[in-house]
Write a structure and sequence with these properties.
CATH superfamily of the largest domain: NAD(P)-binding Rossmann-like Domain
Shape: globular
Helix content: 25-40%
Largest sheet: 8 strands, mixed
Strand content: 15-25%
Order of helices and strands: EHEHEHEHEHHEHEEEHEHEHEHEH
Number of domains: 2
Radius of gyration: 21 Å
Distance between the termini: 10 Å
Number of strands: 13
CATH architecture of the largest domain: 3-Layer(aba) Sandwich
C-alpha cells in the first residue's frame, strides 16, 4: 500500500512498514495539494496539524483508493470522521499510546504554575534574582478538577492522588460515584470546588473556559490545558489572569497554532509549551507501533 504520513511518522514504524513492502511518504500538504495527494494513497496518517475535512474526503472518494485515515494520537476532531465513515473510509486513532505522556505534561504544568518555574527561570537568565517574588503554592492537600475524564484524565488522576491531592472529575456520562479514588460530579461542582482545573475534553461548539465559567471558580485557581486550544476563551483567560481571579495557567494548546497571542505567551503567570503533549520518545514509539498494527489489520 501507499501510505501518506502528512505530519510525519516515527522512524521505527516507517522502517517496519517499508519492510512489509509498503511505500511511505512523509510530506505535509496544504489543503488543495492534499486533495490531490489522497487520490494516490491507500492510507492517510495524520497527527494534529493536518485537517481532514469534507473536501479532502470527497477528493479521496473520487480517487477510489483511500481505505483508512489514522490519527496518531487520541482526539479525532481534526477529521470529519462521521462523514469519512459514511463514505466507506475507516477512521482509527491510537488512544493508548500517548496518555501517560500527556498526563505527565499536565502535571508538569501544574508544578510549573504552582512554583513559578517558567517565569523565575526566565528572569534568572536575564540576570535577575527575584527570590521574594516567587512564593508559590503546594499541590498536596489541594483539589484537582478534571474536565473530560478519559485515559489522559485517568493518567493524571493517578499521579495527583499519589501526591496527596483530592481529585474530582466531570464526565458527561458519569456525574456521580467514585472510581479508583476519583469522585465524579457535575461541571458546576468541579468549577466551584477545584484549586486546580485540568482540561481533557474534545473541543465543542463553545469554549469550556470562558468568562461565565471563570466566574464560578474559586479565586486563585490554576488552569491547565493539554486538550484543545478552542476549549479556552483566550481573551477571558487573559482578563482573569490580569485581575488575579486565575492564579496561573499552564498551556500546551492554543486557539491558533502556532499562536500569535504573545500577551498570553509572555504573561508572568503563564507556563507555556508549543503543543508537545505527546512528544516523548516513548510515546512516539508506542504511537508508531499502534499505527503499524492498524495498517496490518486493514
Amino acid at each position: 500500500m501507499r501510505i501518506l504520513a502528512s505530519d510525519g511518522i516515527e522512524k521505527g514504524a516507517r522502517a517496519e512498514l517499508e519492510a512489509l513492502g509498503h511505500v511511505v511518504e512523509e510530506t505535509f500538504y496544504e489543503v488543495e495539494d492534499l486533495k490531490e495527494a489522497v487520490k494516490l494513497c491507500d492510507v492517510l496518517v495524520v497527527r494534529s496539524a493536518t485537517k481532514v475535512r469534507q473536501p479532502v474526503i470527497d477528493a479521496a472518494v473520487e480517487g477510489k483508493r483511500l481505505k483508512a485515515i489514522i490519527r496518531g494520537g487520541v482526539g479525532i476532531d481534526n477529521i470529519d470522521h462521521v462523514y469519512a465513515e459514511s463514505k466507506g473510509i475507516k477512521v482509527r486513532n491510537t488512544p493508548m499510546a500517548s496518555s501517560d505522556a500527556v498526563g505527565e505534561l499536565a502535571l508538569a504544568l501544574m508544578f510549573s504554575c504552582a512554583r513559578h518555574i517558567n517565569h523565575a527561570g526566565y528572569t534568572m537568565r536575564k540576570g535577575g534574582w527575584e527570590k521574594k517574588a516567587y512564593k508559590g503554592i503546594e499541590l498536596m492537600g489541594k483539589t484537582l478538577g478534571i474536565i473530560g475524564y478519559g485515559r489522559i484524565g485517568e493518567a493524571l488522576a493517578k499521579r495527583c492522588i499519589g501526591l496527596g491531592m483530592e481529585v474530582i472529575a466531570y464526565r458527561r456520562s458519569k456525574t456521580s460515584g467514585v472510581e479508583n479514588g476519583v469522585r465524579f460530579t457535575t461541571l458546576d461542582e468541579v468549577l466551584k470546588n477545584s484549586d486546580f482545573i485540568s482540561l481533557h475534553a474534545p473541543s465543542g461548539d463553545k469554549p469550556i473556559i470562558d468568562a461565565e465559567t471563570i466566574a464560578k471558580m474559586k479565586n486563585g485557581v490554576v488552569i491547565v490545558n493539554t486538550s484543545r486550544g478552542k476549549n479556552i476563551d483566550e481573551i477571558a483567560l487573559l482578563d482573569a489572569l490580569n485581575s488575579g481571579k486565575i492564579y496561573a495557567a499552564g498551556l500546551d494548546v492554543w486557539t491558533e497554532e502556532p499562536t500569535k497571542n504573545m500577551d498570553l505567551v509572555n504573561h508572568p503567570r503563564v507556563s507555556c509549551v508549543p503543543h508537545v503533549g505527546a512528544s516523548t520518545s516513548e510515546a512516539q514509539k508506542r504511537i508508531g507501533s499502534e499505527i503499524v498494527e492498524i495498517i496490518k489489520g486493514l
